[in-house]
Specification:
single chain; about 200 residues; 2 domains; five-stranded mixed β-sheet; five-stranded antiparallel β-sheet; 3 helices
Length: about 200
C-alpha cells in the first residue's frame, strides 16, 4: 500500500512561517498528518525532551546514527506526526510512504528522514538505499513499520559553493576597484606636487 501525503517543509528559520501538513492522493482520509508540537504520544520523558530539543535545532545526543545526522546536516522539516485514523483495514505494518515536500530543491543533498517509533520505542534513519528521492516531483519514498514523529534533514548546497568559492567570489573585481582608486590618489598627488614646484 502506498500512502501519498503533502508535507509543506518547515524551515527552522525564525522568519519562516510553518505551514500545515496535509494528506493527499488515493489514500486520503486514512491517515492524519500534523506538526508535532507537544509529542503527546511519546511516553518516555527523556525521548520527549530530545524531540523538543531537536525541533528547536539544539544539540542533543540520541543514538549513534541519529547523532551523525543532526551533527552533519540541517533540519529542513521539523517533526510531524503520521497516524492511522481509527482502525482502517489498510493500516498494517510495512507502509510504503511517499511524502511530497513543496520546499525541496536540488540544493538539498543527501536527504535523510529521522523517525522515532512510539510503538517500538526505537529511533530509525532512512537514507541511501532505504530512501527514494525524486527531485522532479519533490517526493521522498520509504517503508515504515509504524507511524509517529518524523523529521527531515539534509546537506544544504549554498550559493557559490560550486565553481567560485563564496570566500573568494568577487575578489578580482574588488582588487581592480582598489587599484583604480590608488591610481587616482597617486595621480592627484603628482598634480599637486607639480603645481607646488611650479
Amino acid at each position: 500500500m502506498t500512502v501519498m501525503v503533502l508535507a509543506s517543509a518547515m524551515s527552522v528559520s525564525a522568519a519562516s512561517k510553518e505551514k500545515p501538513i496535509e494528506e493527499v492522493g488515493s489514500q486520503k482520509g486514512y491517515y492524519e498528518v500534523t506538526p508535532s508540537t507537544n509529542f503527546e504520544d511519546v511516553t518516555d520523558a527523556t525521548v520527549k525532551a530530545q524531540l523538543e530539543m531537536l525541533n528547536k535545532g539544539e544539540a542533543v545526543s540520541v543514538t549513534t546514527d541519529v547523532d551523525k545526522v543532526i551533527k552533519e546536516k540541517k533540519l529542513v522539516q521539523k517533526f510531524f506526526d503520521m497516524r492511522a485514523v481509527g482502525q482502517h483495514p489498510n493500516c498494517t505494518n510495512g507502509h510504503t510512504v511517499t511524502l511530497k515536500v513543496d520546499a525541496m530543491t536540488d540544493k538539498w543533498k543527501n536527504i535523510t528522514v529521522v523517525h522515532y517509533s512510539t510503538a517500538r520505542t526505537t529511533w530509525e534513519v532512512f537514507s541511501g538505499n532505504t530512501l527514494k528521492v525524486d527531485y522532479d516531483k519533490s517526493t521522498l519514498t520509504f517503508t515504515v513499520e509504524d507511524f509517529s514523529p518524523f523529521a527531515i534533514y539534509a546537506d544544504i548546497v549554498e550559493e557559490g559553493s560550486s565553481g567560485t568559492s563564496p570566500s573568494t567570489q568577487g575578489v578580482s573585481s574588488t582588487w581592480m576597484l582598489y587599484a583604480a582608486m590608488a591610481l587616482i590618489v597617486l595621480g592627484s598627488g603628482v598634480v599637486v606636487y607639480q603645481k607646488k614646484r611650479g
